[in-house]
Design brief:
Immunoglobulin-like; disordered N terminus; single chain; TIM Barrel; 2 domains; 22% helix; 338 residues; binds zinc ion; three-stranded antiparallel beta sheet; 18 strands; alpha+beta; ten-stranded mixed beta sheet
Length: 338
């Protein structure tokens, strides 16, 4: 559905409810769950709002952190007059709200640099694989975490190239931008089909969801890139950039465009999820446990979906589908490797 005023109001209520749910239900788990957006533009590139306005939106809508990723520039996150009047003392404090520095390195393939403090020039390359590897290496060298963005945007990256780009461990499974073609089409696979192809090759790749925020103002339109539509929820020891980035690097997070998990646990034996009952909207869920070649290993319609490993699956991940059309994706568990 298109974003509109009613949806924005509903979204705000939904976000507030999710924030309460997160803090109440997950605080007791080992580590804490922190919700954030890793792909955010401001007026310092082609976004329409000052960084302080963008940051404030996330802070006020149930998020714990946001990564500012303007095109080909590092937007300072802790200095400058645009922050002075807006950043309050709780920004960056453990347990409050965190702004993480970053950049969208805008080469022929776009890669986000998460948690860098300097601009990284696009490194170029001979083909998409070379471009991904060279930029990922430069981002790592600057202390950041590389994330390949929107592979189906202008159909820039395919599954074989992702398999070959071995410097890359993270990609956008869901980018809320309307021109990112997450669902594939015309013979091209969806980003989720690409993901299973990469995982089936035995290569670890983690999938993120993000807003790719550009718009906080302007007329309502399906082509606006509004906030609040794709995010990750990270299980980390504390709300600090090093802890969050280390957890994302390990795959200790799930991606969502609307479904919130009460809990997620994995052991050597099984994966266990817990989903929130929602009597008000009568939301129901269907969870698919997925393995090699995208094969559905089990469907579970309960609020506590569980999958017990057989041992020969190669990997297992879960996709939770809500009756309102939104989803959550957990990260692959490679049997024998994790
Ligand atoms: Zn991009
Ligand atoms: Zn972007």
């Amino acid at each position: 559905m298109l974003p509109g005023r009613k949806m924005r109001i509903m979204g705000s209520v939904f976000c507030a409810w999710m924030a309460i749910l997160l803090f109440v239900s997950l605080a007791a788990a080992q580590g804490q769950w922190y919700r954030g957006n890793t792909h955010t533009h401001t007026a310092f590139s082609d976004g329409d709002a000052a960084p302080s306005v963008v940051v404030r939106w996330y802070k006020e809508h149930g998020y714990n952190f946001v990564v500012i990723t303007d095109h080909d520039r590092y937007t300072p996150i802790d200095q400058g007059d645009f922050y002075a009047s807006n950043l309050t003392a709780d920004f960056g404090q453990p347990g409050k709200f965190l702004v993480i520095g970053g950049e969208e390195v805008t080469d022929k393939v776009h890669l986000n640099a998460i948690n860098v403090r300097e601009s990284i020039k696009p490194q170029g390359g001979t083909d998409p694989v070379d471009i991904m590897n060279r930029n990922a290496r430069a981002i790592r060298a600057a202390g950041g975490l590389p994330q390949v963005n929107h592979p189906n945007w202008h159909w820039r990256v395919n599954a074989d190239q992702l398999i070959a780009a071995t410097e890359v461990k993270h990609f956008e499974l869901f980018n809320a931008g309307r021109d990112c073609n997450n669902s594939g089409g015309g013979g091209a696979p969806s980003t989720e089909e690409m993901w299973d192809r990469v995982l089936s090759s035995g290569r670890v790749l983690y999938g993120l969801a993000s807003d790719d925020t550009h718009s906080l103002f302007g007329e309502f339109s399906m082509w606006q890139a509004d906030p609040g539509r794709g995010w990750i929820v990270v299980k980390a020891a504390q709300l600090s950039a090093p802890a969050l980035v280390a957890a994302i690097d390990r795959g200790d997070f799930y991606a969502s465009n609307g479904v919130e998990l009460v809990d997620y646990e994995q052991s050597d034996q099984e994966i266990r999820l817990e989903l929130p009952p929602d009597k008000r909207h009568e939301v129901r869920y269907r969870t698919y446990f997925i393995g090699r070649d995208g094969q559905v290993l089990k469907r579970d319609d309960s609020l506590k979906p569980t999958y017990r490993f057989r041992g020969d699956e190669l990997y297992v991940r879960a996709r939770v589908e809500a009756s309102n059309g939104t989803m959550a994706w957990t990260q692959p568990v490679f049997l024998g490797n994790k």
